[in-house]
Amino acid sequence: MITSSNTSYSPTSSDKTILVLKDQLRRAKIYIGFLPSRGNHGFVKDLRRRMRDIQQALSGTTIDRQLPKNVHKKIRAMESILTKIKQVHDNCAAAIDKLQTNLHWTENQLEANKQEATYAAQVAAKALPKRLHCLALRLTNEYYTSSSNNKHFPYQDKLEDPKLHHYALFSDNVLAAAVVVNSTLIHAKKPADHVFHIVTDKLNYAAMRMWFLANPPVKAAIQVQKIEEFTWLNSSYSPVLKQLASQFMINYYFRTPQNKPDRNPKFRNPKYLSILNHLRFYLPEIFPKLNKVLFVDDDIVVQQDLSPLWSVDLKGRVNAAVKTCGEVFHRFDRYLNFSNPLIAKKFDRHACGWAYGMNMFDLSEWRRQNITAVYHYWQEQVSIRELFNNV
After folding, report:
1. Which Gene3D superfamilies does this entry report, sorted A to Z (predicted)?
2. C-alpha triplet 247, 339, 355: angle, nearest 5°
3. Coil, strand or helix: which one is 272?
């Protein structure tokens, strides 16, 4: 690692580069406070420029392979200016060392507090008020004790009508699904034109059905299915199912890492082991008679009529989604593993992903381009642990 006594930079182990950058940034912040009062405006301008370079390189980065290719050039340039400043202000070395120690401790404490806040936010997002803790259990009990004559949804003739507005919602959260459906219909100009297809797991199937049987959407059609009904979806057909059952993936999601705690705990949420999280890649098989489907996540609240989305011309594209290039961490190079030559060859590292909260899918175009086969190709060519940076 570089210390304040270094006069040059030599790249070391790749897992130390981020630490080197952060160390340089800390030293630069300390020096910047001394320079203006002494009239070294040239140094100030140069140092601020180098600080911006380092900050941009670190933005959204958690591991070395996410850093830009010219990072070592940036480090050498920063080390050069830091060395010059130290020579000018060598009599301040003791004060600088003390300030650097204090700054290092403060930044570590800040990072620890950020991680605690992130974990707390994750817990809060999943938490339920006390009076709702047994909701799913009560609904399940009510479903199995109620008359079989009361277990059918109305408007089932609409389920395969391609002229209507169809929604795909895959969730194991009864309340979240209810919010999505209700908020959509509240703002719909013609509720009777909307059809909701909900898929859940076997554990929550009875509760999900009971909720919508007891609280039926006005005029709209609703369908509740469980994953087990899709008998064609198995490890022989879907490579991802085979990978999700591997010991590596189970360890990744259920064992706490001892050597390097995650900066973002959501990446280790066991929900990603559920096939519910991957059903979106099989929409044409789930809805063989539909041409368009609006896929929605269960964490959205609709605030306007969504009917116009079915009139959007996708111009031969398979899906329409919200662009997410506003933040650096949405770039492919922030989460795809570009050290894999196959990924580096096929993907643009500066291209961006998209938000999956709400996507319009043209299923006819999907079938024509055989996108599911493309998905399977990548699952077979590159394992999940080789595909993403965070695994």
Report:
1. Spore Coat Polysaccharide Biosynthesis Protein SpsA, Chain A
2. 75
3. helix
106: amino acid identity, one letter? T
What would the DSSP string read from start to end of 103-144?
HHHHHHHHHHHHHHHHHHHHHHHH---GGGTTHHHHHHHHHH
Task: Specify the pLDDT at position 100.
Answer: 77
The pLDDT tens digits of the residues spanning 367-376 come to 999 999 998 9
Q: Which residues of 184-200 are buried (b: 16+ CB within 10 A; e: fewer)?
A: bbeebeeeebbbbbbbb
CB 8 within 8 A of CB 85: no
Count of residues making up the chain: 391
- Average the pLDDT over 268-275 and give the result: 63
CB 136 within 8 A of CB 264: no
pTM (2 decimals)? 0.67
Beta bridge partners, 215, equal: none
Domains of the chain, earliest start first = 14-124 (no CATH), 131-387 (3.90.550)
Per-residue confidence (pLDDT) for residue 5, from 0 to 100: 41
Measured distance CA(373)–CA(335) in Å, rounded: 23
10 Å CB burial of residue 313 (0-12, 13-18, 19+) is exposed
